[in-house]
Design goal:
Layout (H helix, E strand, L loop, with lengths): L1 H22 L7 E8 L2 E3 L2 E5 L4 E7 L4 E5 L4 E5 L4 E6 L5 E6 L12 E7 L1
Parallel strand pairs: 1-4, 3-9
Antiparallel strand pairs: 1-2, 4-7, 5-6, 8-9
Bound molecules: copper (II) ion.
Length: 120
């Protein structure tokens, strides 16, 4: 009799424990935003993000090595020739930020820009 009681208490705790684990399941994966880099532009050339909302920024190069740096946001992604790289970040301030290619890629390198709008 006593064993039965102990068994049901243990079972109860187990079920409770499992429901706790489920309740603590991680949130949905952050939204992935893909940016393609190609001499001498980013596509898209403009993005809008929400302040404080984490995203995964994916930089995909379809020709030579490129980078994408937002100095004020502490973001610098580099993708090798034909490669992809990614970074997770959450913009902490609102405003318009201009990202530049951070890997010299040729004559038009200086004109590779991506405008990021961060809104509330
Ligand atoms: Cu470049």
């Amino acid at each position: 009799m006593r064993n039965r009681l102990v068994a049901s208490v243990v079972l109860g705790l187990l079920v409770f424990g499992i429901s706790l684990v489920h309740g603590a399941a991680p949130q949905a994966e952050p939204h992935r935003i893909e940016v393609t880099a190609k001499r001498y532009s980013f596509n898209p050339a403009e993005l809008t993000l929400k302040k404080g909302e984490p995203v995964v920024l994916v930089l995909k190069s379809v020709d030579v090595a490129h980078g994408l740096r937002f100095r004020e946001l502490g973001v610098d992604l580099k993708a090798g020739k034909g490669a992809t790289s990614e970074v997770e970040f959450a913009p902490e301030k609102t405003g318009d930020f201009v990202g530049h290619c951070s890997v010299f890629c040729g004559g038009g390198h200086g004109s590779m820009m991506l405008t990021l709008h961060v809104v509330e």
